[in-house]
UniProtKB/TrEMBL annotation:
This is GLPGLI family protein. It holds the Pfam family Porph_ging. The lineage of its organism: Bacteria, Pseudomonadati, Bacteroidota, Flavobacteriia, Flavobacteriales. It comes from the Bacteria. InterPro entries: GLPGLI.
């Protein structure tokens, strides 16, 4: 069978002298087994100076911006999984977009248990490993034929590239589906290190959760001032012209806030009060 990542055989001896190697994962995520999966394409960019993980759509829109010589925000993360770290490091910058743009610095060292179980995947022999992280138990399938100790999101530290990763409840499933080698060190500054010029505000995870929980408690606050000043706004293509109209949407706004992200680290997710 033709190997999925054929370029690694060509660049195995000089990988870290190359520019950016991009590995593209399909992510399937759901809150629980009663829900359908959300499917998202994710990029893992590895260069000599950094490792970055983010929604593929960011790069697609960024290419359009660069071709048109513009800086227009087209996209917000759908996953809450925008990560940057130095190579061979567990110290992550976790970029988080919720009205404002934030960065949470975290130390995410993982202890892996290697198992003897193996499987074939697109011409590669994969070995199984397990770890506990973020309030979940995870199974990873890696190949030591690929001497890259990285993987999706914050997962890394195995003796090879992670091809498949899933929690034991199968609420998060990552599969490596393709890769490409970029001739340049891909510039993500407009959508990752900043959000289209908006710098990331340093914050702790606890304070970030408090920020979201406060918005959830009073979701109309950000829009009400504009309406008081005579501005009009829309919600799901419906015009809102008064505070009374806005208050009628409170429950729908709260539901949108609660369900915007499926939190991968469930031991760090916000705690929303029941209505």
């Amino acid at each position: 069978m033709k190997k999925l990542i054929f370029l690694l055989a060509l660049y195995a001896g000089s990988f870290y002298q190359s520019q950016t190697n991009r590995f593209i994962y399909e992510l399937q995520s759901r809150k629980n087994s009663s829900e359908d999966y959300r499917k998202t394409s994710m990029n893992l960019d590895i260069s000599p100076k950094s490792v970055k993980f983010y929604d593929t759509k960011f790069a697609e829109y960024d290419s359009v911006n660069k071709a048109r010589n513009q800086e227009i925000s087209h996209y917000s993360t759908k996953t809450d999984q925008v990560i940057e770290r130095a190579p061979n490091s567990f110290q992550n910058n976790w970029y988080r977009d919720f009205f404002e743009y934030f960065v949470v610095k975290s130390n995410d060292e993982m202890k892996w248990k290697l198992l003897q179980e193996t499987q074939e995947y697109n011409g590669y022999k994969l070995q199984k490993a397990t770890t506990d992280f973020g309030g979940r138990t995870w199974d990873a399938w890696f190949s030591n034929e690929v001497n890259i100790k990285e993987g999706p999101y914050k997962f890394r530290g195995l003796p090879g590239l992670i091809f498949i990763l899933e929690d034991t409840d199968k609420n998060f499933i990552y599969k490596l589906v393709s890769n490409k080698k970029l001739d340049t060190n891909y510039d993500t500054h407009q959508f990752l290190e900043t959000h289209y010029g908006k710098p990331a505000i340093p914050i702790s995870n606890q304070k970030f959760n408090t920020y979201i929980e406060d918005i959830y408690e009073n979701p109309t606050r950000m829009l009400s001032e504009g309406i008081k000043n005579g501005q009009k706004t829309t919600f799901k293509n419906e015009s809102i012209e008064s505070i009374e109209d806005l208050n009628k949407k409170r429950g729908m706004l709260q539901n949108g806030i609660k369900n915007r992200y499926i939190y991968i680290e469930k031991d760090k997710e916000p705690q929303f009060k029941s209505n």
